[in-house]
């Protein structure tokens, strides 16, 4: 049995888009510098006056993951549970950055 139901739909009208509210070309050097200093995404957004979700969406869309290089395969990228700073942990069970470990230890 053949499908006899065919409809022709008109081409969709072009969607109106508004210009971007954030000039990412001007902000990316500052974002890169803050992330290389070890600031987390939340701290980077706070320092630049951006919404955290806006920055996360931009980084995810452009596949910008981690700015902290790792030297050995057993190192893990983490955000500190106390101060939310990004750091490279020497083992998978370390959850506090070295400064917070020194403060609590």
TrEMBL record:
Biased composition (Low complexity): 1-10
Record region (Disordered): 1-20
Highest taxon in the source lineage: Bacteria
Name this protein carries in UniProt: Helix-turn-helix transcriptional regulator
